[in-house]
ABC transporter ATP-binding component (Limosilactobacillus gastricus DSM 16045), 253 residues
Amino acid sequence: MSDHLPKEKKIMTARILLTNLQKSFGSQQVLAGINFDVEPGEIVGLIGPSGAGKSTAIKTMLGMEKADGGEALVLDHHMPNRQILGEIGYMAQSDALYESLTARENMRFFGQMRGLNHQKLVPQIEAAAKVVQLTPDLDKRVSGYSGGMKRRLSLAIAFLGNPPLLILDEPTVGIDPALRRQIWTDLKRLRDQGTSILVTTHVMDEAELTDRVALLINSQIIAFDTPQQLKRQYQVDSIEEVFLAAEQTKEKD
């Protein structure tokens, strides 16, 4: 696995490489020197309790928050770096949509912001909307959307442009189980085509679907491996049980 690669090799291959990344808000340390990587063509899950620092890790690696120490390399660039943001499909935990516009207009706006020309954008809007089952509602104003529909639209926007790196913060919150299964089928298809995908999730069943899982507890990544290896390491049958066992171990330290 990539965990055993020397650092210089990781820099050449990893699409995300965090080295001793640190971030505090006042006296509260949120990231206590985390090390983390996402390779081409893999899905990595970042899981942890609310407030563990998952969203902060994402915002810091993207340059939305300034790190206090350590290093974040994304697509071989030191972050922050605005020039590469167009190559990243990012879905935030909170939807940032223009509610007075239709879904299609939102997708067109964000696609243009990513540098996609009109000729490429039209078919990509249709394809992304189909994945998240929004095609019948593309020309409705977002103000009339339910919370789940807004999450689906945010995910569709992240897909635009077929970026080499997807960073998805709780992408399936509020989405029904059947559609969630379909979205994961599409994420795996993108992975098999070489896309790198980082997903945060509270749904432990989803963590089972990733190639590697990082457990972020008390500001630190305390385990990072394949779901199968983590279950063997903690001698349990599910990632949910891995998480509970790791949390208990951390509390005893």
